[in-house]
Amino acid sequence: MQIEKDIRDSFFSGIYKVMKEDNNSVILTADHGAFYLTKISQDFPDRYINVGISEQNMVNVASGLALNGKSVYIYSINNFMILRALEQININLCAMNLNVNIVGTGAGFTYSTDGFTHHGLQDMAIAMRLPNMQIYNSSDRINTYHMATEISIKPGPKYFRIEKGVLDDIYNTEFEFNDGFGAFNIDQNTKSVIISSGYMSQNSKKVAELLSSKDHKIGFIDIFRVKPIDFSLLNKLVNKIKNIILVEENFYSGSLGELISSKLLNKKGTRFLHIAVDEDIDFYYGNRDQLLKRNNLDFDSLNQKISVFLDI
Q1: Per-residue pLDDT tens for 26-84?
Q2: One domain, residues 35 and 154
């Protein structure tokens, strides 16, 4: 199995495989591209539609195709997809539980040089409140490819927040993805756990590995299925953990951290640290690392915050 290195190409190479095997699948884009998406448009021209910069209309077209039995993918930037077309997604897709896969790129500060209009800091919180909506957040090329080939073919509306560029591998190709998250370095000796999702899982895993020692073992959990989460299994994993740290590239309000803390922190003796983005409108332009540093989410800031919290 050849998995492309760029995250977007990892996903769309998986979709290419799906479309090759299923003549009923169709992809729509709001004038937004990727290398492997171009290959799809060339090899399946009758099942590729560029609707132009009109995300609301794209959802309407997708719902009509789905009602006629098609398996549909729609692709644009996260904010333009979820925020701009929210009513259409809520009524046309979720209320009718249609088989439409929303594919968005631009989570967090991905589009750091395009300003606040492109910062994906609210989309996940909004999508989490949509009935019937499943949400998946990619963290490396391997689980991204799995989302395309194994999850997207299942019924119902789904939202895939895929990354862009080349990231380190968190998983290997033999990993079982059935539970919607990956747990690493967790056993009876683990005292603390860092839980993260998406791009932030890259830094979070490295911090967990760096700070972990014989005297204070730190585990790591990457949650790639944000909705629904298997809280029964997650509770079992962290049942004896004293310190739970959650790191994400989203606003605090309506976040994954709020959801997890409300479900997991029902026992005495558990300490919880939530690291996310303050709800300010930041018009700063720069690369992603610069914006993460401005919001204390870069590797050094996470390392310092977590070290202080754990007193190690």
Answers
A1: 999 998 878 889 999 999 999 999 999 999 999 999 999 999 999 999 999 999 999 99
A2: yes
Range of the domain at 250: 181-310
- Quote the number of domains for the chain: 2
pLDDT at 54: 94
Q: Is 62 exposed, middle or buried (0-12, 13-18, 19+ CB in 10 A)?
A: buried
Q: Which CATH number characterizes residue 58's domain?
A: 3.40.50.970
Side chain identity at 166, as an amino acid letter? V
pLDDT tens per residue across span 220-235: 999 999 999 999 999 9
* Residue stretches of the chain with pLDDT short of 70: 1, 265-268
Residue 176 placed within a domain: no
Which of 162, 194, 220 is at the close of a domain?
162
Specify the pTM. 0.95
Same domain, 122 and 74: yes
